[in-house]
Write a structure and sequence with these properties.
With about 500 residues, the protein is of the alpha+beta class. The chain is built from 19 helices and seven strands. Among the domains are: about 55 residues; about 90 residues, Serine Threonine Protein Phosphatase 5, Tetratricopeptide repeat, CATH 1.25.40; about 70 residues, Immunoglobulin-like (Sandwich), CATH 2.60.40. About 65% of the residues lie in helices and about 5% in strands. The protein has a four-stranded antiparallel beta sheet with strand order 3-2-5-6, with no helix packed on it. A three-stranded mixed beta sheet has the order 4-1-7, with no helix packed on it. It is rod-shaped and about 190 Å long.
Length: about 500
């Protein structure tokens, strides 16, 4: 509809009968040509208005439908878009039909672009565009208003360009919604992780506006609601960690993760605290292990070092500590064996000392104290054993070779410069035994003259009725043999104070 201010001027009413009546009634015939000239000019003017000016007035641009305001109708800032009518000039009315057709085409294109703008505007305002892209949206509307101004001024190409710019901006806003949903979700999650509740709430509001029914939106809403308790748990965890109360700190972080399982800082903090707790256990085990090692509590030290190794399998310290422990255990064991060997020597436990020193050499063949101790102990152990043999098996001294060996043993014992109590006792006993063994004893024997008599390991006496033999003190055996009779064996002992009668050896039991 044409603006009333741009309505074309109506031509003056014209009735052809009036000039005729005047002509007939005019008695002045000389004035007829002038009148005809006036009438002709008037007709030419009417034709010009009808065929030239009137089409321009009919097609004069009307102001496009106003772009819907981004503000509510009751907003105090809302105001109708002012119309700026433009008065047609004589130059415009003189444009050619081709130019008018071009203008008409541009005008239609501008109107089509405007229609697209209105549709996009409706769609975006339904999505509350002013909440999430107010600046861009207002810029698009400003471009549309620029197009309106150009349209009013019949600058249709400029109007089309402005409308196109506005529609492209609005299309860009519409197509950006999926990425804005993703950005809003990301911003919400980041704000939750940062503990920034105001920012999280703002981003969540935008997300709920753009994508209200999404499962991810509901999940983020739950996370936002947990920001305060999660931050309280994390803060408590930090306080506990500063006090090196790592177990309690870990419990606080785990509580936070129960409230918000997707909280990245909480997950990262849990990892850090677990590593700190592990490191603390490692250091404590190593410290306690070295203390036990210093106190020679080797079992405890080994257990603690192994615990440290299990805590941090890649750490080199427990392995080195276990090697040090092994060396310390070896050194301690050698020191113990040395003390034990010396004590055994002092107590004249020579055989035991030999075993102790040999055990030390089995651990470390280069140990000097063990090799020296073995040199001292082995001869004394052999001497002690020989002396004890003389004492416990004195009856064997009836054998001359054994007696001579016993005498050599006693002689060796007497060469010891500082004999101990045990050796002195052995020397005294062996001396007494040898003195006893060297004392001759005259032994009398009687038989039947038929029995062949032999004193084992001493002499064959043959058949006799009565005989005598000098023996050294000791235990002996006399054997009698006679044909047709069972052999006899008589055991007897020769002693210096022999009080018994003669030894009778007779075979009397016939076979």
């Amino acid at each position: 509809m044409n603006d009333p201010s741009e309505q074309p001027l109506e031509p003056a009413k014209f009735d052809p009968r009036e000039p005729a009546a005047s002509l007939e009634g005019n008695s002045n015939a000389g004035k007829s040509p002038r009148f005809l000239m006036i009438v002709g000019a008037t007709c030419v003017a009417l034709l010009f208005v009808v065929f030239v000016l009137l089409p321009g007035w009919v097609d004069s641009p009307e102001t496009p439908a106003a772009i819907a305001s981004t503000e509510r109708p009751d907003s105090p800032n809302s105001s109708p878009m002012p119309a700026t009518p433009k008065t047609n000039t004589v130059a415009e009315s003189a444009r050619s039909p081709f130019a008018e057709a071009q203008d008409s085409k541009a005008r239609r294109a501008a109107q089509e672009s405007l229609q697209l703008i209105l549709e996009l505007q409706e769609t975006l305002e339904a999505r509350e565009v002013t909440l999430w892209a107010a600046t861009e949206y207002q810029a698009a509307l400003s471009a549309a208003e620029t197009g309106d101004q150009a349209y009013r001024e019949r600058e249709f190409d400029a109007a089309l360009a402005a409308y196109k710019s506005a529609s492209e901006a609005l299309i860009a806003l519409e197509t950006s919604i999926p990425s804005r949903i993703l950005d809003a979700a990301t911003a919400t999650a980041e704000a939750v992780d940062a503990g920034d509740e105001p920012t999280a709430l703002n981003s969540l509001t935008i997300l709920k506006t753009l994508d209200p029914g999404a499962a991810a939106t509901a999940a983020l809403e739950t996370r936002v609601a947990a920001i305060k308790p999660v931050q309280e748990s994390l803060s408590s965890a930090e306080t506990l960690a500063d006090r090196e109360q790592y177990a309690a700190a870990i419990e606080e972080v785990e509580t936070a993760l129960k409230l918000d399982p997707d909280n990245i800082p909480a997950k990262e903090r849990l990892t850090v605290l677990q590593e700190a707790a592990q490191n603390a256990r490692f250091l404590q085990a190593m410290s306690d292990g070295y203390l036990a090692l210093e106190e020679a509590r080797f079992g405890d030290a080994r257990r603690l070092f192994n615990a440290a190794l299990n805590t941090r399998k890649s750490a080199p310290e427990p392995g080195a500590a276990l090697l040090e422990l092994e060396s310390a255990e070896t050194a301690a064991e050698l020191r113990r064996l040395q003390r034990e060997g010396l004590a055994q020597e002092a107590n004249e436990q020579w055989s035991a000392a030999v075993k102790t020193y040999q055990q030390a050499l089995d651990i470390d063949g280069s140990v000097v104290f063990a090799s020296d101790g073995l040199k001292r102990s082995e001869p004394r152990a052999e001497l002690s054993k020989a002396l004890e043999g003389v004492i416990t098996e004195r009856e064997r001294l009836v054998d001359r070779s054994i007696l001579e060996k016993a005498e050599q043993t006693l002689k060796q014992a007497n060469t010891i410069e500082e004999p101990g109590a045990k050796l002195s006792r052995q020397i005294a006993e062996v001396t007494e035994i040898l003195n006893y063994a060297r004392t001759p004893v005259d032994m009398a024997f009687v038989s039947d003259g038929e029995t062949d008599v032999t004193v084992l390991r001493v002499k064959r006496l043959g058949s006799f009725l009565q005989t005598q033999l000098t023996l050294r003190p000791g235990k002996y055996t006399a054997v009698g043999i006679r044909n047709g009779y069972r052999d006899v064996r008589i055991n007897f002992e020769a002693t210096p104070d022999q009080a018994d009668g003669p030894i009778a050896v007779r075979c009397t039991e016939a076979i």
